[in-house]
Design brief:
Elements (H helix, E strand, L loop, with lengths): L6 H21 L7 H20 L3 H4 L4 H22 L7 H6 L6 H30 L14 H25 L2 H16 L14 H4 L3 H10 L9 H32 L1
Helix pairs in contact: 1-6, 2-4, 4-6, 4-7, 4-8, 6-7, 7-10, 7-11, 10-11
């Protein structure tokens, strides 16, 4: 049995691969970092125009200022969507390098979670800028509340959730290639099935209990509590936390059982 690398060596390798991902992603791009914020801004602009300008439904599907409510959901969604999409190619894109290295293969999932997470954190100044801008205009103010202390917990919870999902998806796609296309369809459904453009409190009361079984609901509740404390429903967060840990446990089991077969297949 080859010796396992120490935690320090694992972290060093993870950071090196993450930096390489970010460097490659932006080295050939003229806009670089701006690409990490343009897509969520464009999506936010479209939803804001449709729900607030056209249908004037902003008060009914979220809280005011709605653009802050919307961005606080769309920015973490871009991290979620980008990571899950990339995990479908985690082992297929660099098969030769994966076979030739001795580091634990879970690093090929974790580096995607980390690199996309860094992009998410780098996009947060956009949310802050809109919050400041809303306070300088005559519209509803975006006040920062003490519940902002739960924001880092949301980041940790989302990272754990993505690691669990990635550990399941990455090896399965090697054997079931159609799963990559299926996941793209599922992600489109998940955008509307998750409280990204609306809040859990805006759902019918009969659905409040079930909302927590979508773990992304609890993640968004922790994020949005910074500006909208009423979105922090602890029964949703607790249920989502349990589901997240279950997903992580399943991911670890699936990955450990499949990784040897994956290495043979690629």
């Amino acid at each position: 049995m080859p010796s396992q690398p120490s935690p320090n060596r694992y972290r060093q390798a993870l950071w090196l691969l993450t930096k390489r991902d970010l460097r490659v992603r932006y080295s050939t791009s003229a806009l670089g970092y701006l690409w990490s914020i343009l897509e969520p801004l464009l999506m936010a602009g479209i939803y804001f125009f449709v729900f607030v300008i056209i249908f004037k439904r902003g008060d009914h599907i979220g809280e005011q200022p709605y653009i802050i409510f919307l961005l606080s959901g769309l920015l973490p969604w871009m991290w979620f969507n980008g990571t899950v999409s990339d995990c479908t190619r985690a082992f297929l894109r660099e098969a030769k390098l994966i076979r030739s290295t001795k580091i634990p293969r879970s690093i090929w999932v974790n580096r995607l979670v980390l690199s996309k997470g860094i992009e998410y954190v780098a996009s947060l100044p956009v949310l802050a800028a809109f919050a400041i801008g809303s306070n300088l205009t005559g519209g509803p103010h975006a006040s920062l509340h003490w519940q902002v202390v739960f924001f880092p917990l949301g980041i940790v919870m989302q990272a754990v959730l993505l690691v669990g999902i990635g550990l399941i998806i990455a090896p399965l796609v090697v054997f079931f290639r159609d799963l990559e296309r299926a996941i793209k369809v599922i992600l489109r459904f998940m955008l509307y099935a998750s409280p990204v453009i609306y809040g859990v409190s805006n759902l019918p009361e009969s659905l409040h209990f079930w909302a927590g079984f979508n773990p992304f609901s609890g993640v968004l509740a922790l994020y949005r509590a910074a500006f909208f404390p009423s979105q922090l429903q602890w029964h949703v967060v607790i249920t989502s936390t349990v589901v997240t840990l279950v997903v992580l446990g399943i991911g670890i089991v699936v990955f450990r059982r499949m990784i040897r077969s994956v290495l043979k297949e690629i």
